[in-house]
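User: I've been going back and forth on whether these two constructs are worth ordering. Before I decide, could you fold them both?

Assistant: Sure. I'll take them in the order you sent them. The first construct and its structure tokens:
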Amino acid sequence: MRIQGIDNIVIIGSPSMKEFAISLSIINTLKSHNSQIKVTWIGYEEQKVLAEYVNGLDQFLVKEEVEDEILTQNQAVIFLSEEKDFSKKCRDLKIEIRIGAKSGWRSNRRFTDAVAIDDLLTLEECYIALLTPLGITEKSNNEPSLTAPVGTFRGIIKKDLKNIVFYPYRLDTHRVWPSVRYFELIDQLPKYENNYIIAGNEMEGKALEMTAPELFRVPSVKNSTDLEDLEETLALIAKSDVLVTYNNDIAHLAHAMGAKVICISSSAESFYINKEMCSIITPDASCIKCVGEKPCECLRKLGIEEVMEELK
């Protein structure tokens, strides 16, 4: 198997946080076939904060930190996104194995192995396909790719009842909707059988309190919209029993930790949804990108009955 003859490999990742989370399983898969291989990940600044929690990762570098000497120490490089400058550089540096997705002929000739992915149904399948030139044809195990940063959590989680975390759809502070849908859902769930934790940032919390102040008066509903950073958010999720979210980034990071997740998404995003994760997909395929203050019509069409059924 080709992977067993490689000592050092570099993975050039995607800027998308959800794609970063989905692709982390590659590391465990590589190490299961060659436990001695050293894996270097080239990513982005917002991903670097999670580097110390990535299981099996030996080195994380931000793109701007990468020098030619670092690349030449590796016998193989895998491109998870289209990086024209890096692919040219790796070709010019004569890195022995250069793997990427097949696209235009100019890009293909920078790779030693251009893999066809057009017929694959999910992003994770595409990532595993990129390992086939190394002799790997499937993901090796379902071990968590991320260690939960539980030490960063400042709050207290009561364990008397099941803890359900709801996380906002958008990260932008001015986007409240469709987080208000969580209140529709909570309003129909048993008030004293579960603890309901509304997570997010401070501005979102203030807006939600104005939208449905009566729900925050229920003892089983807790306002946790004061999370300081991504690490604390993941720590809260790890300490809870289940996450319900419209946010694909958070959903996939939580799934990478091994957390139980119910991810609600539009059909246009189905390619990016990890099939091992519990997901509720809107049936409407005519999803368009939401612009400015316009609410997401696709998610508005989704009833809350499916979410309630999954929570049971």
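The second construct, handled the same way:
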Amino acid sequence: MTEEKSQKPSYNDLEKKIRKLENQVKANVNAKKAFTEINDRYCRFLETVSNYVYTVDIEKGQPATAMHSPNCIAVTGYTPEEYDDNPDLWLKMVHTDDRQYVIDHTNRIHLGELIPPLEHRIYHKDASIRWIRNTIVPRFDDDGTLIAYDALVSDITELKKSEQEKGQLQAQLRQMQKMEAIGTLAGGIAHDFNNILGAILGFGSLAMEELGENHTARADLEQVLLAGNRAKDLVRQILTFSRQTEQDRHPLQVHLIIKETIKLLRASIPSTIISFQRSTPKAVRYWLIPQRFIKS
């Protein structure tokens, strides 16, 4: 009996064990409280950012469960509950032209590969098309097996629009530079051609003075001078286009411009096209510089 009594814990031993259990319970309560506070702060943070986070758990190399943060509504229009109810929603909302691209990269993720951020289009719930950037970070166990991956999804629609507008502006700038180079080249050629025309018109005028009124070659020479003057006008227009001459305003007879334009069109329009000409008053004049000869 004395030996059995000596094996029973004393009151002090029981008190120590009780205090130890109380400390463990208190530590567990504090840890649970701290975890709850951290989780609440994390959820509040996710609700304030313009992007959203999702997590996919992997079992036996295949997706098992997925969790989407509440802010997925702002980016995709769908709620976390809608993703839970329809496991294929994440793929169905991908733009049809980008779907295979997303599938291929998702398969690489399931194989444990590290891939760069994906940029692709999605169909928003409101039927609009959005651009998103999907940055994926895999998680592995101690054996290197993929167990889950976390992802941050950002709406980059406005960024893509800005890039597109920038590309269009760059293309317009290149076109303007080409036109400027063409204008400079045309101006140089026009100057040389103008010198040749000067000789043709000058000697043609001298020949007209030496010929009599009834000379048989006079009519042909008049056509030469007429063509030379037309060429001179064309050179002047080219120089105006290339900005190498003064752009003085002067009166233009609109009916003459229309007649010359119709002559040019008749030479280029197929005979199957019916054209007509309406007479315009010869007295109508406008003070202007022809718009087709001015670069924008």
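Notes on the second construct follow. The longest helix spans residues 157-210. The chain has nine helices and seven strands.
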